[in-house]
Amino acid sequence: MTAFSRLRPEFFRRDAVTVARELLGKTIARRFESGEIKRFVIVETEAYLGEEDLACHASKGRTPRTEVMYHAGGKIYVYLIYGMYWMLNFVTGDDGHPQAVLIRGVDKVIGSGRVGRLLQLDRSFYGEDLYASDRLWVEDTPTIVSYSTAPRVGVDYAKEWKEMKWRFIANN
Question: Residue 161 and residue 3: Cα distance in Å, rounded?
């Protein structure tokens, strides 16, 4: 595989909806403890856009869990659900404006919990800089331009925000 450059922090310092769409086709590179590097093409994402977005964790304000979302884009935000699945998010936007993109699918692995398992994520990834990390980064491979949109998953509590078509799915 041809080596591609890492996405620079500026890529992530835009609104989450734009970044979520443009991450389709980009490649997550993961260096495992063994030293082996594996690459996975991003095929599904979801955008979460700040404190006003009731589906976004930041809607509850700045907490120890959401602190990294208040940083400038380009950091990793992971959190545990059901006591067993680490969810991978990339912080987007400017400093002080919490936004993130959830990675819902890579290659043939669909489901954010499955992605976390495939990448062997844990709490230690929280706050890691995507541009500087030697464990996980995103490479600037061609963007997928043929995609579908859909409402976000698992946010029925979020009133009208649950209907936002901020889930982006690469077409086959």
Answer: 39
